[in-house]
């Protein structure tokens, strides 16, 4: 398990991580979400022993990364989508061999593992080609294999699918889900919220380095009170139709120029709203029902936090 207690990181005047308590258990993918600058990468770098916290404690499988960095490094690995973490002058296979040796993996174990990893990321045919001749996607796939070369118990994924083509990103998601099912602890940050919804059983949402909320993606959506939105397109959106829609629910939003009536509310209101519109003389030309997404929840949480901060500042 990865655990942080009251974790803080200050860079001069900026507090990037401000009292985070995280638990990342084995056997599932845990998400760490937040808008740009929320403190996700800083947190992951601390867990990866690349940065040292200003305050608070971290335990990774019971080990302290500050006091036992070598032991921790053997059991963790980091895959960061935006960063090139392999050597251009070496071939794909040489890179994996080099990184594997840094972990003191015996050759008889390393050789078959490298073959497996090359196969996993679809680079078997390009294994003998220098990385400088790889496309961006191939380099990224090699970085993923590099991140798995020590068979880490704890996998830190910072935007792992950034810039990957859709089929490769989908394959990587499958691999991540399998690794978690096989017992690894995975911490994932991603701006692709559909990816987070698909992979993560538990998600932490942070803003300005602070904990804003946590739960399953579905729980976060419920907690933030985001509701499904009914969007009705109406031809002949007269003032009478508008008045009937507003009488149905004052929270209705009407765009008369576009001929659209929208309502976000709990429960199943599509039928009753459309009937009210038709009864007032409107003709329905379209109907869409959008379920609330994790993105709606994250935006709502950030709005709420900004309002709370403004109130504290007053
Ligand atoms: N080395 C540094 N020196 C000073 N400030 C830093 C440093 N690294 C990060 N910060 C600041 O700390 C805050 C958190 O940054 P961090 O990169 O952890 O956020 P993030 O959530 O990963 O953002 P993004 O989604 O954009 O990657 C930001 O305000 C950033 O500018």
UniProtKB/TrEMBL annotation:
Keywords: Antibiotic resistance, ATP-binding, Nucleotide-binding, Transport. It is a peripheral membrane protein. Residues 2-233 form the ABC transporter domain. One of its GO terms (biological process) is response to antibiotic. Gene3D superfamilies: P-loop containing nucleotide triphosphate hydrolases. GO terms for cellular component: plasma membrane. InterPro entries: AAA+_ATPase, ABC_transporter-like_ATP-bd, ABC_transporter_ATP-binding, P-loop_NTPase. It holds the Pfam family ABC_tran. The keyword Transport applies. It is found in: Cell membrane. GO terms for molecular function: ATP binding; ATP hydrolysis activity. The keyword Cell inner membrane does not apply. Belongs to the ABC transporter superfamily. This is Export ABC transporter ATP-binding protein. It comes from [Actinomadura] parvosata subsp. kistnae.
